[in-house]
Amino acid sequence: MMSESPDTRSLVSASSQLNLTEIEAIDDKEFDIPQVDTPPTLESILNEPEEEDEPFVLEDTCLLNTENIDAHSCETSSLASSDSGDRAHLKRCKANACTHEHERACTHTRRKAIETNATVHGSVLRHSTLKGVSAQIVSAAEKVDAGLPTAITVSGVIAVGTSHGLALVFGKDQNQALRLCLGTTATGAEYGAVSALSINRDCTRLLCGFAKGQITMWDLANGKLLRTITDAHPPGTAILHVEFTDLPTLAVCNDSGGSVFELSFRRVMGMRTCESRCLFSGSKGEVCCVEPLHAAAELKDHPITPYCLLAMASLTKILVIGLKPSLKVWMTFPYGRTDPASVPVLAWQFAAVQKAVNPVVAFCRGDTVHFLLVKKDESGTIHVIKQRQLQLSCDLISLTWLNSRTLVLMDSSEKLHVLDRPSQDELETLDLHEVQLVYNSSHFKSLATGGNVSQALALVGERACYQSVCSYAGQIFYLGTKSVHIMTLRSWRERVEHFLKQERFTEALSLAWSFHEGTAKAVLGLFGDPLKRKAVVADKMVEILFQYVERSLKKCPEQGKIQVLEQHFQDMVPVVVDYCLLLQRTDLLFNQIYSRLLENPVARGVFLESLEPYILSERIGCLTAPVMRDLLSYFQENGMMESVEGCLVHMDITNLDIQQVVRMCWDNQLYDAMIYVFNSGMNDYISPMEKLFQVIGPPLQEGKPLTDEQVIMGNKLLVYISCSLAGRAYPLGDIPEDLVPQVKNQVFEFLIRLHTVESTLEEEVHPYIRTLLHFDTREFLNVLALTFEDFKNDKQALEYQQRIVDILLKVMVDNSDFTPSQVGCLFTFLARQLAKPDNTLFVNRKLFDQVLEFLCSPDDDTRHTERQQVLLELLQVGGVVQFDQGRLLALAEKAEFYQICEFMYEQKHLYDRIIDCYLKDPLRKEEIYNYVHNILSLPGYSPKDKQTARRKALEHVKELVRINPAKTAELVAGHFGGEVECIITALQDDYLVFQLLKNLLDPSEGPNPQAVLTLRPDLHELLVGLLCRFCPRQVTPFLQTSQHYRLEETIEITKKHDLREATSYLLEKKGDVQGAFQVLLQTLKTKLHTLTQENPELARPRSEDEDAEEADDDQTPLSVVEEALIDLIQLCHRNSHGLNQQQREALWFPLLEAMMSPQKLLKGPSAKHTSEALKELTMKVLNSMSSFIALPAIIQRILQDPVYGKGKLAEIQGLILGMLETFNYEQTLLETTTSLLNSDLHWSLAHLRKAVSRGLHPRQDHCNICLQQYKRRQESEEEIIIFSCGHLYHCQCLQRKEQGVMGKEPGLVGDGVHSWSCYKCTSRQGTRPADRVSVVGGRMRATSLAQTKVTSAYRGADTEAHGRKDLAEVTLDSQQIQAWDQLRCMYRGPSRLAILTDIGHSHSSEKAGLLNTAHPPTGSIYHSENFSLKLSPPPVVEE
Q1: Residue 208 pLDDT grade (very low, low, confident, very high; cuts 50, 70, 90)
Q2: Residue, of 1166 and 530, whose pLDDT is higher
Q3: Is the N end or the C end of the chain the one with fewer CB atoms within 10 Å?
């Protein structure tokens, strides 16, 4: 293992060196875009607009508007930091504090935060202050007026620039002494503040850039000024960056104008010169950050190094260019649209990727860090490849590499984020507010030269701190206003010790384990052999474990509840146990640590309890003898016997007292543990069986029911026997292979013993097999069946198999204690064994015959179903070969075992006999339909088989109908559709025929209405007749749904059975409305006669007692009358629309007469209630007929009636007033509707008149033909023609163009009016009819369209001729037609004119006097479902 890192106070850390041994650990999953083989040229970059989107932008971004952002709104984002710059700026530091705080509060939340790993990382960075440097900076500011620090750079020395133009150079030794003070305050007053610093590779030269644009070069050996450069860039701009490259004579600088220049140093004839070359012009896009690639000494021969790479970050993109051997752009990459206030940052680092070390540039602007890998392939081609980006939730202002895997980022709220690049895990977050970071805002705003910078650059400069953060040799330096701070990686021991000082032992152990496993991030001091690394870390973890235990014992709460003590140790003990097991140091756990925990009884108990889950998961397999004894005694003392059993069966128990443990297990009913102890401790597999048989044997022999505990023991015994015979250990694991044959033989010998060890004279032979058969016959036989599967070539095992079978037959067949199911289980088991192809068992066939006699015993009717199922199971597993099939079938038929018969017939393909079996079996009669359907429809049956099944089904069709008529009908519809008449003849029972036909022909019946057959009409009529006999109420619904009967024949049937409602329906369907009416009217009269002749008391409402007495009669005579009346009213309503007035009166007046005539028979107080009810029903008739019969005719008919005509007016007052109220309501509704329609019509016509009579406005003041103004000559008036389209013409010009003038219209008024058409419109529209307007004089007065007649294609010829006598005829132009269409479309629904038209049509149809039974035409608006009168004010139309 490598040695530890050097002294932590040293400024040079060994972590800066790239560890090439890590190359194997890096995968190539980060690469996600193709390589860039042909990078753009510098000229193409400079000439392209900055706002264009590059074609390879990878993500969507949002554009922020920067026009209204104040570039001078804030100075810095630190409360206590200062801005580097001129002296006047220093006074503004405190005034800006509130602004900075507001900016931090308004920092934008970003899209997605980094997913943190659950691994403990601890403190990764060590934060130190360079006290010597810090003290001397403060002292220089106070004593020599050096000013505040503005910039820092580090190499072999530390250089700090100040606001008064000085550069202070400090040593990097422990004293940090001031070596040089470069410059004077006088030159500082001339040049301004130091805005940028850079030290060359061999630490011999220092470049200083100033706020007013000058650059100086100093010799760090003697402090001599070597060069003063004033013409390297345009004057009036501050130096933002100045950087040495790896070439000693080449540097680059970046000014506040956004330009980048190359500085080449020469020395010719003793003269030091500097040549400047522009690399990037700020006019094409302002660069605000430059970063050359620096290679360490060991990488100076890298193939990329000779190209002298330079990364530049503008406000919109990053550029990677090569300065040598010639200037070349290698790659550009846009940020996308980000926050304009975000700071672009860059950083280079050599990293090991894909087993090669190549430079990687990291850059970001905002919250997304991008990585670009630069590599050179074998052919010499340079590739720039984008790697997986890093997304954060904060706005970044600084980005620095600590090593090839670790990044340190600082956000706008001055918080450091340490991230592992490959995994993208955030390792640590630190707050740097106390540093009081220096910002470079004044240089970006170029305040020293008058602030002549762009608004965008000034906005970026608000958070710029490029010159305040510097990295060197794996260390990061931060420049504060009064101090210099350094961040370095902690070694792995320091990170662990950091937790230990805080007594956070759990986190310390977790972190140390991550070092042990190699999963930790940012590791320092552990590079080397993995075995040595694990050994060193394991020693440290053991040390931590001892400290943790000692601390827990010493700081144990002395007072309080026992729960507090238990919780205290429960927080510690499982952690200690877990890490001891991870380190595989059980010796440490059970010796040193356990001996320490024994001092505290609570700690001891918690420790022993915590061992249980590790034992159950088999992480602990062996305990020391003291710990094992303590564990068992502790569990026993605390009643945790289930835990004892669970632990025992998972541990090695060879070091325990076996007898004591067995006794404990038996006493506490721990049978699993007892079996395990016998098996593992003594290799004894028989003793546990004997002990368990001793418990369950006696009660089974005596016929007593077993307790729940005994049932559990019996089940365990069966499982144990099964495991032992299968070679598996109980309850888990496997028996050692060398013991498996021996154990099997022992178990078989035990089972076939004649007697137990402590047998008596009364004991029956083979007690163990007998006991297991009585306990659970089926499961015991299953155990044997599983065991017999393994007996292939083992001769001794086959002998045991035959002996056990003989014993089973001997025990069960000759014993009447076993039920038929148990005997059946045995022979099913035997049949399965005998049916195997490699069977070696021999069973006497006579035994099967005895079992058959036993199961088919006709004398014993008990357990009939059970016997049949047992025999069926026996036959299904192959037992049929053991029986004589004829004898078996005879016995089964005698015993009524129909399923057995079916099984036998199935094998012989006697499907007709199977149908007989279904019919005879009372439990399976319903299944016969599916069976017949399957035979007739499924493939696999021969035509002969299907014909036999059809014949058998037809023979028993009467029984099928009796069992289930619906399923029979479904079967007939599917397979016997052509034999319905034969089936009906075969039924010979009207009710059965009725049930079958009802399910066949009635769509509402049966489970499958789609299966209804279409048969001859006579069958439908037969069903109607049967319905009349057996279910009269369903006749009418059937007639309404069915369409396959003949009307005349069906009417005769319903008349024969006196079903008046059905007869009426058929007559109405036939078209005989009057006949249907007479049938229903006769029914009503009959019911009215019954009502009046019977006791009138029947018509009054019944009391509750009377309802209870006559609950069967649901309807009173009055309700019966009301139902009949409603049927009649509905009939009249349905047919009145197609009848004339005389025919309507022939329907309604007899109905009215029928309702009024019985009322004169009701006299006396007892009939008062019935009379009132009839008057109400009469009023209902009057209200219904008033829609079809004129009101005077109705009143005349009422007054002529004897009931009302001879009495006083008071008697009919209610009737007349009711009719008048109805009349008044309808009259008011009609008047309101008419008024609304008239108002609406007037409004529409008024607006139409206004639209067509408006004045005309010409588009131009000149003629559209001659193009001369119409006021060409003032002395004479010209005739001008203006059309509604806005075109203006001289009359003479238009006459010349219109060669085919249409001439005068017939019937002109007065002098006559010419008809003109617009020349331009007609020339564009082809042959479309021309617009017509009247000719006017010089005053341009057009004839109003409201005074002319509008020609319509819908008007009649007479009306049109009449109109020509008075008015001039004109047509609407295209614009007027469009206006009229819009006016009509404003109405939603039918127009009210259409309503009046329909009203007129309805009146004319009434006068036709034609008998029409069909429905009225559906085109009328009355028959629209959405028709409604909209009684709302007319809409307002904008002019």
Answers
A1: very high
A2: 530
A3: C
- Cβ contacts of residue 1165 below 8 Å, gap of 6+? none
| Closest to 499 in 3D by CA, of 490, 513, 509 | 509
Of 57 and 1260, the one with more pLDDT = 1260
Across the chain, mean pLDDT equals 76
* Backbone φ, ψ for residue 1427 (5° rounding): -70, 130
Q: For residue 1369, what pLDDT is reported?
A: 42
Strand 368-376 and strand 390-391: the pairing is antiparallel
Angstrom CA distances, 236 to 182, 448, 568, stand at 24, 9, 71
Give the pLDDT of residue 1100.
44
Enter the tokens of residue 879.
């037992």
Q: Give the model's pLDDT for residue 377.
A: 85
Instruction: Choose among 1031, 980, 982, 1032: nearest CA to 1001.
Output: 980
Interatomic CA distance for residues 286 and 314, integer angstroms: 5
Closest CA to 405 of 239, 315, 294, 521: 521
Return the biggest CA–CA distance within the chain.
161
Taking alpha carbons only, the member of 75, 82, 187, 85 closest to residue 448 is 85
CA–CA separation, 1142 and 1183 (whole Å): 19
Find the mean pLDDT for residues 1091-1105. 52
What is the pLDDT at residue 211?
Answer: 93
Which segment, 311-320, 716-725, 742-751, 756-765, is predicted with the most confidence on average?
Answer: 311-320
Backbone angles phi, psi at 271, to 5 degrees: -100, 130
Helix (H) or strand (E) holding 1226: helix 1213-1252
For residue 1362, pLDDT over 50 is answered with no
SS3 content of the chain, % helix, strand, coil (to 5): 50, 15, 35
What are the Cα distances from residue 929, in Å, to 971, 977, 1148?
7, 16, 55
In DSSP notation, 90-147 reads HTTTGGGHHHHHHHHHTPPP-S-PPPPPSS-----EEEEE-HHHHHHHHHHHHHS---
Residue 1271 sits at φ, ψ, to 5 deg, of -95, 50
Cβ atoms 549, 603 nearer than 8 A: no
Among 523, 298, 494, 513, residue whose Cα is nearest residue 405: 523
Give me the mean pLDDT over the 1224-1234 stretch.
86
- 153 close to 470: Cβ distance less than 8 angstroms: yes
Q: Are 434 and 484 in contact (CB under 8 A)?
A: no
Note the pLDDT tens digit of each residue in 889-943.
Answer: 777 777 777 787 888 888 888 888 888 888 888 888 888 888 888 888 888 888 8
Each residue's pLDDT tens digit, 190-201: 999 999 999 999
Identity of the residue numbered 717? L
Q: What is the DSSP secondary-structure string of 754-774?
A: SS-TT--TTPPSSHHHHHHHH
> How far does CA 134 lie from the centroid of its chain?
59
Instruction: Give the 3-state DSSP-derived string for 191-202, with helices as H, strands as E and coil as C.
Output: HCCEEEEEECCC
With contact defined as beta carbons under 8 Å apart, do 1325 and 1232 qualify? no
User: Cα angle vertex 1077, ends 1075, 1079, to 5°?
Assistant: 70
For CA atoms 1428, 1429, 1430, 1434, the dihedral sign is positive
Residue 837's pLDDT band (cuts 50, 70, 90) = low
Alpha-carbon distance of 209 to 766, in angstroms, equals 110
Residue 348's H or E segment, with its range, is strand 344-353
Helix intervals (H) in 638-766: 641-648, 658-667, 671-676, 682, 687-702, 708-726, 740-751
CB 973 within 8 A of CB 1011: yes
Is 217 a residue whose pLDDT tops 80? yes
Beta bridge partners of 422: none
